[in-house]
Design a protein that fits this description.
about 400 residues, five-stranded antiparallel beta sheet, three-stranded antiparallel beta sheet, 11 helices, about 50% helix
Length: about 400
């Protein structure tokens, strides 16, 4: 009698002949091998961590996915060896196959996250971030999400292809790929346009993460750029979610397109007795005493002087939008206080002249009868004007002339 082999123990209709005990023992052995592999991997990583710190960080990101993947693979191998080509193993094998595909996709996603987060850490963003850092951070974030979506779609497709029915369906779909593509394109036109707009935003450098923008009349900072929409954090901590196509089809303001430095104006309506020179001197003292001013621009001009008031326009500069907002308010507050305490004559006033009765000075000057210029109007006052009026208002004597009514 020939010695029994592993495959001789298998019954073609069900579980192995030596049954569940053999399957359980083989599964335990394979799990033990998987545990040994996990321990060896972690030991190697710990030994290499002093020289390569990134290996410890990578293992921390992927530990759970790696452990579960190795354990499921061990069970998969045990079932495949203990009961090949049986009804028992067919359902279990399919479930374990899907599990391995899902766990492997999870492991890839964690690895991609680790790689892109490490790359983005070289380009920190914030108030002091450069234009290149914001651009690189935006593009890396977009690529990270795109790769993760591709991995997930590939994993779901691979899992569906484990079912024979789905394989037949896949062949049918490939046979009618043209029609399916047209239908899918029409059905997902809006989504696809947002995806393409997201790609354009990420690589055209129109906006970047942490840019200051004005969208739909709201002032805010770009907080997140996804495949289909952009999240704008408004100054009062609200979030404005805008479709990506908005930034490719509608004008918007980007205050940090080439740099974060900005100019801002402060306008005051004052009395004519204000001294621009004294006010300019006070402005210099105010700006020298605050770190909000970046020392680039300081201008005070009289922009208008009508209607009984003088409009003083002040132009200042700051390193970023937040500093500029605070600087404008600070300058306005300090100058209002200066007007109240040191130059009360500059406070705006409304003057009213009270007249009791008409005086000779208030009457209109008499018209000289010899002055004929007052009578020379466009359509009256002179024979030539009267003739001009008749030509413009009376119907034409020529019967062939076109009507003025346009008939």
């Amino acid at each position: 009698m020939s010695p029994l082999t592993l495959f001789d123990l298998v019954d073609a209709e069900g579980v192995p002949e030596r049954g569940w005990a053999f399957l359980i023992v083989l599964t335990v052995l394979m799990l033990a091998v998987a545990v040994v592999v996990i321990v060896l991997v972690e030991l190697v990583v710990r030994l290499s961590a002093p020289r390569q710190p990134w290996t410890a960080v990578l293992l921390r990101h992927t530990r759970r996915a790696l452990r579960l993947l190795l354990l499921v693979v061990a069970v998969w191998i045990a079932v495949d060896l203990a009961a090949p080509e049986t009804r028992f193993s067919e359902a279990i094998d399919r479930a374990l196959t899907i599990g391995v595909i899902g766990l492997f996709a999870w492991l890839l996603v964690e690895t991609v996250d680790f790689a892109f987060e490490g790359a983005k850490s070289r380009f920190p963003i914030g108030a002091d971030a450069t234009r290149g850092a914001r651009r690189a951070h935006t593009q890396l974030t977009f690529l990270q999400r795109l790769v993760i979506v591709v991995i997930i779609v590939a994993a779901v497709s691979a899992a569906l292809l484990t079912f024979p029915e789905m394989q037949a369906l896949g062949a049918s779909l490939l046979a009618s790929a043209g029609l399916a593509g047209i239908v899918a394109g029409l059905a997902a036109q809006s989504t696809l346009s947002n995806v393409f707009a997201g790609v354009q935003i990420a690589f055209s450098d129109a906006i970047r993460v942490d840019d200051i923008v004005i969208v739909e009349g709201e002032w805010g900072r770009i907080e997140e750029i996804t495949l289909t929409y952009v999240v704008v954090r408004i100054w009062d901590d609200r979030r404005l979610v805008v479709p990506s196509t908005h930034f490719t089809s509608t004008p918007f303001e980007n205050w940090t397109r080439t740099g974060s430095e900005l100019l801002g104006s402060v306008e005051l309506d004052l009395d004519w007795r204000v001294s621009p020179a004294a006010m300019r001197s006070r402005l210099a003292e105010i700006l020298d005493g605050t770190p909000l001013w970046d020392r680039r621009v300081s201008v005070l001009q009289v922009a208008d002087a009508v209607g009984g008031l003088v409009r003083v326009r002040i132009l200042v500069s700051a390193a970023d939008a937040g500093s500029l907002f605070d600087l404008r308010n600070y300058v306005r507050e300090q100058l209002v206080e200066w007007v109240q305490l040191e130059s009360p004559g500059a406070m705006p006033r409304t003057r009213v002249v009270m007249v009791d009765r008409a005086s000779a000075e208030d009457t209109a000057p008499a018209v000289d009868p010899a002055d004929q210029s007052a009578k020379r109007q466009l359509f009256s006052g002179t024979p030539e004007a009267q003739q001009r009026a008749e030509q413009m208002l009376a119907p034409s004597a020529d019967p062939d002339a076109p009507s003025r009514a346009g008939a």
